[in-house]
Each structure stands twice: as C-alpha cells, then as structure tokens.
Amino acid sequence: MRIALCRTLLPLVILASAPAWAEQGMPGTAASSPRDVARISVSGTGEISVKPDMAVTTVTVLRDADTSRAAVDAVNEAAAKVISELKQLGIEARDLQTSDFSISPRYSNQVPSPDRQQNPEIIGYEARNSVTIRIRDVARIGEVLDRVVTQGVNQGGNISFVVSDPAPARADARRKAVEQARSAAETLAEAAGVKLGRILSINDGGEMAPMPVAFAQRGMMKMEDASVPVEVGENTIRANVDMVFEIAE
C-alpha cells in the first residue's frame, strides 16, 4: 500500500510545480524587467538672471517708558506716523502688514549681593511694533527708508528684492536645466560608445530662492539727510532636474 500511495502522489507533485516553471520561463530565456534596462542618470541646472521689480523690507519702532501703558501708547503713536507716511508715499494698504508687536520689561543691571538673594528689579518697559512693507517701485526704496526713519523708525531688518511674477523665468530655467542634463547624457553615451535611448524618468528638483540683501548692518539710525543708497542688482533663478535615459541597443 505504501508503494502505491507514492506512485499516486508523484504525478500530483509534478503537476503542481508546472505553473511555477511556466511563470519563470524555460531555461535559456529571460523576462525583461524595467530594472534590467541599461540606463544613464544625469542632473542638470538652469540659471536665469532677472531684474527684481519689488522690494520687501521690515521696519520697527521701539519705545521705552516707565510703565507698560506708557510704552504702548508711545509706540502706537510712532507707528501710526510711520504708516501714515507710507500711505502718503503711495504704498497701498495691501502692501502694509504688522509683522510683530510686543511688550517686554527692562531690568536693572544691579548685581545682587552674595549674602542676599534678590530678584532683578523692573525699571521700565519696552514696546515694539514692526511693519513689513512691499515696495512695488524698487527705484523708490531709498526714499521710503529715509522717510520712515525720519518719522521714528529706529530698527531695520533686511531688504529682499523679489520678482513679482517669477513663472516665466522659472520656466526658462527649467528648459535650460533639461538641455544641460540631456547634453551631459549625450556626452556620457558618446564616451561610452553607446546610443542614447528614450527618457525613462525626469524629476523636477525645485528652484533655489535668491538670498535677501542684508540691510540691518548699514546703520539706519545714521540716515538723516539723504535717501538711502540701494542697488537693486539682479536675482538669479535656478532650477534643477534629474533625468534617466535608456541606453538603446
């Protein structure tokens, strides 16, 4: 009985294994897979220089007083003058935004004696009001900064020169990035003695934003008589792409 049973099971084992052989293919054949395709991977960068048409800057009014109420009243009065001056210069309400308002105590610098623990003494309060300004006529940035300093601004931030509509320049930068990547792939293929095939993938690596032009260290408190000299220069918009090409047979 044991021998008969083994003879019965053997064909079943062979039949059960047949589908696996069919999926893998017969010896001497290979199923093509995207991972088996020979490829060349490259990167490209495109740059476009554009003259900015808008400036963004933040200016701050600081006021000290003996009480928090007096400090707030003083900073509110000064900030109102600054905002009024900006509107007289033609800056629209949509381009003015309060970006910071704070009140903080000022403490004495007296060092407590070693034999007595003493909390720092509050000797006054400081209030600040910061306004972020978008200046759509960059030729007037120096005039705007000079006028707000005259009206009471005593702390400045950074100026960022931006392009209000960067889409066309960004598209041109992407085109240049693709051209550079394709050129690199063609060079590699030629050097390797192979033919460049179709594009397998292309990924947009994004763009690099231009760095703001530092202004905080230029001494806003010393600007009294003349408009602030500001050079606009150009912004460089960069785009990066990663491309994978098939090596044609």
TrEMBL record:
It comes from the Bacteria. GO terms for biological process: DNA damage response. Residues 1-22 form the signal peptide. Keywords: Signal. Transmembrane segments: none annotated. InterPro entries: 26kDa_periplasmic_antigen, SIMPL/DUF541. It holds the Pfam family SIMPL. PANTHER family: PERIPLASMIC IMMUNOGENIC PROTEIN, SLR1258 PROTEIN. This is 26 kDa periplasmic immunogenic protein.
